[in-house]
Every structure is written in C-alpha cells, then in structure tokens.
Amino acid sequence: MTTISEYRPGLEGVVAAETRMSRVNGQIGELIIGGYALEEIATKATAEEMAFLLWHDRLPNPAELAEFRQRLAEKRPLPPATLSLLESVAQEKVPVMDALRIGAGTLSLGLDEAEPQDLAEAIVARFPTIVAAYWRLLDGQQPIKPDLELGHAANYLYMLTGERPSAAQVRGLETYLNTVSDHGLNASTFTARVIVSTGSDMVSAITGAVGALKGPLHGGAPGPALDMVFEIGSADRAEPYLREKLESGERLMGFGHRVYKVRDPRAEVLGAAAERLFAADGDMALYELAKSVEETAVSLLAEYKPGRNLQTNVEFYTALLLHGLGLDTSLFSPTFAVGRVAGWLGHCFEQMENGRLIRPTSIYIGETDRTW
Ligand SMILES: CC(C)(COP(=O)(O)OP(=O)(O)OC[C@H]1O[C@@H](n2cnc3c(N)ncnc32)[C@H](O)[C@@H]1OP(=O)(O)O)[C@@H](O)C(=O)NCCC(=O)NCCS
Predict the structure, then answer these.
(1) How many A from CA of 70 to the centre of ligand 1?
(2) Within the chain, where are the H helices?
(3) CA 337 to CA 67: how far, in whole Å?
(4) Are strands 30-33 and 36-37 parallel, antiparallel or unpaired?
(5) Which of 80, 98, 253, 362 qualifies as a cystine partner to 224, CB 3.0-4.6 A?
(6) Which atom belonging to ligand 1 lies closest to the Cα atom of 314?
(7) Number of neighbouring beta carbons within 10 Å of residue 247
(8) Is the shortest distance between the CB of 323 and ligand 1 below 6 Å?
(9) How confident is the model at residue 223 (pLDDT cuts 50, 70, 90)?
(10) HSE-up (13 A, CA, CB side) for residue 105
(11) Across the strands, what pairs with 25?
(12) What tens digit of pLDDT does each residue of 246-265 get?
C-alpha cells in the first residue's frame, strides 16, 4: 500500500472511489452519466429511466420501465409518522431543506427489513412527497396525495401546485432532474459513500447527504443566484452591481467550480432548457437579463480573479429553469436533492458492493508536551 503523507486541503485531486455512475472532465467541460454524454441523455430520458440507468448500468426495456414506474409510484405515500412529524415541523417554520433532512431520516420506518432495492425505490419515490407535502403545510394548506397515474417529475409538480403540469413543464423538470442526478465524487455523494462504507444503512447515507448538499458552496447557491438577477433588474445595472460585490470580496453565486475550469456543461443544458421553457410560456425578458448578467459576471471574474478560470456553474441556470417552472427559491435546493438522490443511492450500491471503509488520515498539528 502506498502512503500519501501530503495534506491536500479539501481532498482536492485525491481519488477516493471508482465509479461507473458519472465522469466529470473539468478541463474540457464534459459530463458523462451512465455512459451517455449529458447533452445526449438529459433532454430525452424520464426521471425513472435515469434512476434505472444509474442503478443497473443500462436503460430499462419497455416492460421493465412500466414495472419500475409502477413500483416507484406505489411507494410515493409517506408513512403516517413522517407526515405528522412534518406537520409539527411546519409549525416551527423551518426551511424546506431542513424539513427534507428531518423527513429523510424517518424513511426507514416500516422498511427495516426491506431489500436494498426496495428501500432505494422508496427513498427516491418519497423525496418529492416530503418536499411537496411540507411546502404546502408551511403555507397552511393540506398536502396533495400523489397521483399514481403521473410520472415521477409530473407528480412532483402536481403535489406542489395541485395542477397537472404541461408537457413542456414536465420536460423542463425531467431535464433538470437528469442533469443533476449524478456528478462524480461531489461532497454530498462522498458523504453518502462514507456513511455506507461503515456498514451503516442507506437512509442514514441520504440523510447525511442532504445535510452536505444544503451548504451554499454545494447545492445552496441557486436561490441567491436568482435573487442577484432580480436585484440587478436591468442589464445596464449588472456591471456596477457585480463590481461592488467583487470589490467587497463577496463571491458571485452561480460561478466558479472546484472541478470545471471551463463553462459547466450542465449550465449549457439547463440554459437551453430554460430558453425553451421561457419561449413556450414564460418571460423572455428575464431569460435575456440572466444571459447578460452571466456575460458581465464572467468577464468581471476574469478581471478580478485572473488565472482562476471562474465560469458559470450549474446553479445559475438551475435558478432560472426552476423559477420558470413556478418553484419558489426555497424549493431550489430541495429539488436538487430530489434529482441527486438517485445518484446518491447508485453510489451507495457501488460502495456496498466493492467498497472499503473510508477512513483517511490526518496530520496532528497540536501540542505534544503538555502535562496535567
Ligand atoms: C464552488 C466553489 C466553492 C469552488 O471553490 P474552490 O474550488 O474551493 O475555489 P476557491 O474557493 O479556492 O477559490 C479560488 C479563488 O477564486 C475565488 N472565487 C471562487 N469562486 C468565486 C465566485 N463565485 N465569486 C468570486 N470569487 C470566487 C476565490 O475567492 C479564490 O480567490 P483567491 O484565491 O483570491 O482567494 C466556489 O467557486 C464558490 O464559492 N462559488 C460560489 C458558490 C456556488 O456557486 N456554488 C455552487 C457550486 S456548483
């Protein structure tokens, strides 16, 4: 065994897993998920096909897909204890992402003996139900029961709004969920793998992963990114506004990435999806404003942080697309989790099959000569 004694802050560049889920090439801006280029699969697959692909390394045939869809749909209703917990939590008005973390932890109820496959299906099926039920409770409304006839993405929108979404809205959401379904060894995926690597269970893993995803350096950026576009308000205000932020040392949300040193390919796919959605039934002026904010931000980042290659990341167009779908900013990160959970579980399966306890080392920098 080789011993690496060099400390790498943030584990940057450290290889900690082998995976067939996805490959991220940050130098050329390429993302492969389950063997398909992101651009190839994101706009075509349903959310169910994507989950099946991640878990089985192939797309389902029509009979398998129908069966898988049915099994997921049947698992959507929440255990009564989860629902009543969410009711209490709503009284405290905690943010949706915290409610998802709290609700996620209860998903083992009644499933202690379940096979890993059944448990994974229940988790994926119930994430949207938790988010939508809590969202309505927060607003003093009753949760809407899942509609088992609708697909995974369509049913999520239906449970949020009570209205059956248009085909364009469903396609927009599926493209989003597919785009964020997996992304190499990102922080939340790593968290999930660390947890199952100890022999712990998948519910613990996805609960920890939600906690990791919540942070603004990972999945918490799209809300602030959209707020920024709204605050800017018109293209001519973009430069003074962004300059002021950079002068005061603030980070621009939706830009920069640990791995991508060119434009995040997910920004490309989501930008195009947002454009289609806004052209079909939205506000093209907002889309145009976002494009010009993006251009100004990228050029100012090059000026203020030369050599850093700070480019648009996934969060910027996530914000625009999800806003176009009628989602409130507080639902952006939880909706990210609704998409990413399929990937987390795929990684859990891999880790449980081949993995070794993940246990890095640390360098002690404290005192050694203290006496009592
Ligand atoms: C995503 C992110 C955490 C990656 O950061 P990282 O790999 O750890 O990069 P670092 O924090 O080392 O940043 C390198 C330099 O670029 C700057 N930088 C990075 N992202 C920046 C941003 N969005 N706006 C302004 N400056 C930024 C840092 O301040 C640092 O500058 P310095 O060396 O002069 O101190 C970072 O780019 C960020 O905070 N982005 C904004 C939040 C966001 O959009 N998150 C979603 C990610 S998908």
Answers:
(1) 42
(2) 38-41, 47-56, 62-74, 80-91, 96-104, 116-138, 152-161, 167-179, 187-197, 202-213, 222-232, 238-247, 265-281, 284-304, 314-324, 332-354
(3) 24
(4) antiparallel
(5) 253
(6) 48
(7) 9
(8) no
(9) confident
(10) 9
(11) 30
(12) 999 999 999 999 888 888 99
Q: From the CB of residue 14, how many other CB atoms can be counted at a distance below 10 Å?
A: 11
Sort 317 into a burial class: Cβ within 10 Å, 0-12 / 13-18 / 19+.
buried
Give the type of residue at 61: N
Q: Say how far apart CA 19 and CA 13 lie, in whole Å.
A: 16
Cα 254 to ligand 1 centroid, rounded to whole Å: 10
Under a CB-based contact definition with an 8 Å cutoff, are residues 129 and 150 in contact?
Answer: no
Active site residues: 257, 315
The rounded distance, in Å, linking the Cα atoms of 146 and 34 is 29
| pLDDT tens sequence across 102-128 | 999 999 998 988 999 999 999 999 999
**What is the per-residue pLDDT for 261?**
86
Contact partners, residue 119, CB within 8 Å, separation at least 6: 108, 111, 201, 202, 203
Task: Report the atom number in ligand 1 closest to the C-alpha of 12.
Answer: 7
Q: What are the b/e assignments for 264-284, b being 16+ CB within 10 Å?
A: bbbbbbbbbbbbbbbeeebee
Phi, psi of 240 (to 5 degrees): -60, -40
Task: Answer yes or no: are the C-beta atoms of 153 and 50 closer than 8 Å.
Answer: no
Alpha-carbon gap, residue 239 to 244, rounded angstroms: 8
Give the strand order in the sheet containing 22-25: 22-25, 30-33, 36-37
What pLDDT, in 10s, does the model give residues 225-241? 899 999 999 999 999 99
**CA-nearest residue, atom 12 of ligand 1:** 258
